[in-house]
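User: Please fill in residues for this 86-position structure.
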């Protein structure tokens, strides 16, 4: 029994059942999310306390990326595997 959301079947459906492509798409998007969160964190440190920042960023970038893939919010070019955000 799997407790992971979104389900792997849904994720694989979005990338033509290619688990290696899923890894590439999700890792690329997670990297972008991580860069964005790092930038947000640096700006937020000037304004908020560390506790408030930790509460706001309690999700891991890869989890966010997988949810975006499942929700079809992330697209890619199968020729170049160029991941873009809608």
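Assistant: Residues filled in for all 86 positions:
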């Amino acid at each position: 029994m799997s407790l992971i959301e979104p389900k792997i079947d849904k994720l694989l459906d979005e990338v033509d059942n290619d688990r290696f492509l899923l890894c590439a798409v999700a890792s690329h998007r997670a990297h972008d999310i991580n860069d964005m969160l790092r930038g947000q964190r640096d700006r937020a440190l000037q304004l908020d306390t560390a506790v408030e920042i930790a509460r706001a960023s309690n999700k891991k970038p890869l989890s966010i990326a997988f949810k975006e893939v499942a929700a079809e919010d992330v697209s890619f070019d199968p020729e170049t595997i160029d991941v873009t955000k809608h």
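For context: The mean pLDDT is 76.
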